[in-house]
Automatic annotation (TrEMBL):
It comes from Parahalioglobus pacificus. Keywords: DNA-binding. GO terms for molecular function: DNA binding; DNA-binding transcription factor activity. This is Fe-S cluster assembly transcriptional regulator IscR. One of its GO terms (cellular component) is cytosol. It holds the Pfam family Rrf2. InterPro entries: TR_Rrf2-type_CS, Tscrpt_reg_Rrf2, WH-like_DNA-bd_sf, WH_DNA-bd_sf.
Length: 163
């Protein structure tokens, strides 16, 4: 989630190299390459090859939910021990199976209702992004200026609401 959110926050700079995301988020480059291959297969990101290449979102940030990102990289929101199969206790359904299934559904619904755009609009997310860019100096001048500009625009539109 962190890496695609970083991409969404910085996409106005053009294609974002994974090396920049790796440095800002302290995530291994080889791991990011694996994640972004999965995200690309699901159409959530697109790659641009060559000098000045990198990644950009495959669709609008308003159309990408947190749940969609989690599913794209084969992670789960399942809170059951049996992965929903109902064979949690010696091949039978355990007493709390339906409790954990209900929780899984609520988590999935909650994350399905939050988009990348919602996260980008959160002041605390933008503040952290500014700190990360300043710390790593990876596009710090551009990112700080653009996030500040975006903050003013979002604030003027009243979009500075928390999720």
């Amino acid at each position: 989630m962190t890496s695609i959110l970083d991409l969404a926050l910085n996409q106005q700079q053009g294609p974002i190299p994974l090396a920049g995301i790796s440095e800002r988020q302290d995530i291994s480059l080889s791991y990011l390459e694996q994640l972004f291959a999965q995200l690309r297969r699901q159409g959530l990101v697109q790659s641009v090859r060559g000098p000045g290449g990198g990644y950009h979102l495959g669709k609008e940030a308003t159309d990408i939910s947190v749940a969609e990102v989690i599913e794209a990289v084969n992670e789960t929101t399942d809170a059951t021990r049996c992965k929903g199969a109902g064979d949690c206790q010696n091949g039978e359904t355990c007493l709390t199976h339906h409790l954990w299934m209900d929780l899984s559904d609520q988590i999935r619904d909650f994350l399905g209702d939050i988009t990348l755009a919602d996260l980008v609009r959160r002041r605390e997310v933008r503040d952290i992004a500014c700190q990360q860019s300043a710390r790593t100096d990876v596009g710090a001048d551009i990112t700080l200026r653009q996030i500040s500009d975006n903050d003013g625009q979002a604030h003027n539109r009243g979009a500075d609401q928390s999720v």
